[in-house]
Amino acid sequence: MLQFQAGQLQQSLEELRQDAFSGAAYIDVSINTQNIVRSQVAFFKEGAITYIGNDLPNPIDFSQEIGKLLNLKIINAAIKMAEKKVKDPTSIHSYLSIYTRINLFTWEQIEKLIFNQTVLRLDQLLPYEGRLVTNAQAEFDLCYGEDRHGLDWQQLQATLVKRQQAWTDLEPDIPSIDAIPHPIQINKNHAVDDAHAQKHLQTWIDGQRSLLQIASEMKQDPLALGQLYLRWHKLGWITFTGAQPKITAQPSTTEQKGLPVILSVDDSLVVQTMIKRAIGDHYKVLTANSAIDALQVLNNNSNSVELLLLDVTMPDVDGFELCRTVRSIPQFQNLPVIMLTAKDGLLNKVKGQMAGSTHYLTKPVEKETLLNAIEKYIPSPQMSR
Question: What integer pLDDT is reported at residue 15 of this predicted model?
Fold first, then answer.
């Protein structure tokens, strides 16, 4: 069993991908302010996610669900035909192959449908802390195309990064996907002048259901609904209470004045958020999501950056190459560089040392471990934590 902190789930899934894991990963997260545990199961095939849902459905249930999502009126007839033709009645892939051969839908359609569902499921999990338990013996043969591939991990990551940024843009007005909208008592001088909004407020916003619950019942994307609700919030029609991830409060800009400055370089917005939450009380954290951005930040803050947190695995230019580049600049030859990587191996540690790193940590890294490593090089003026 693996315990993960808020913002670390995506890194845990990345480790399963790198290990080419096949099997089920059972994920439980804690929605802290509501004492709710949200559970999902993710299935992997040779490191690729193929499905995330409340459970692993059998071929009949999966077929019926796809029929509803695609509004296929003949799905029950197609299921009966497939039952007569399949050699393995437990194989979802066999059922899907028959459906594609009779042009009920294409492999591309079904893959896009499950991809979008997977993104929405991960949206509900990523902000929170929880645990992950794997079962390599679990069997579930959902995969896509005749080559039986899984979902594209890079595309998943890119989509999730954009959505996490979009969710961040809703804060602090809408603190999370589990926030609860409440109607505001509006006087005649500040009335809701939109008929659609009036009907929606009366039908859906009761101060009991969360943003996620409303979106699920309406079969809408929670993020799109949240963006609509933000506009209504700014108009003074609704307000929000409810769940926030368990995080350490971040210091204000005033509080951060005088704190040592750290540059964190990582292409994952989720990891960057986790780092800020872990050390933001003790250090001012600048961020960059690529080698080029990192060099620009260093150039603009050459006299203030006191330590570099550097992810090894990044697109275009990896952490080793960036570290060598930084070390080639005379001003940064003695800058402490802590490398963070999901690959815990002697070879990578040696490569990091050869590139010029001064410390090496394996992700996911605990808050205390990260703070202790940083304080070896730049002690925090705020020692209590």
Answer: 86
Task: Please indicate whether residue 157 or residue 71 has the higher confidence score (pLDDT).
Answer: 71
pLDDT band at 34 (very low <50, low <70, confident <90, very high): low
Residue from 169, 246, 242 nearest 205 by CA: 242
200 phi, psi to nearest 5 deg: -65, -45
The two three-digit tokens of residue 55, written as one number? 């459970």
Instruction: Round the average pLDDT of the chain to a whole number and report it.
Output: 85
Q: Which two tokens stand for residue 136?
A: 């390599």
Query: What is d(CA 28, CA 340) in angstroms, rounded to the nearest whole number?
Result: 25
Radius of gyration of the chain (CA): 24
Name the token pair of 85. 């033709």
Q: Are 248 and 281 in contact (CB under 8 A)?
A: yes
- Which residue is associated with the tokens 């804690």? 30
DSSP letter string, 218-236:
HT--HHHHHHHHHHHHHTT
CATH superfamily assigned to domain 253-375: Response regulator (3.40.50.2300)
Counting every residue, how long is the chain?
Answer: 385
**Phi/psi of residue 149, nearest 5 degrees:** -90, 165
pLDDT at residue 359, rounded to an integer? 87
Is residue 329 within 8 Å of 315, Cβ to Cβ? no
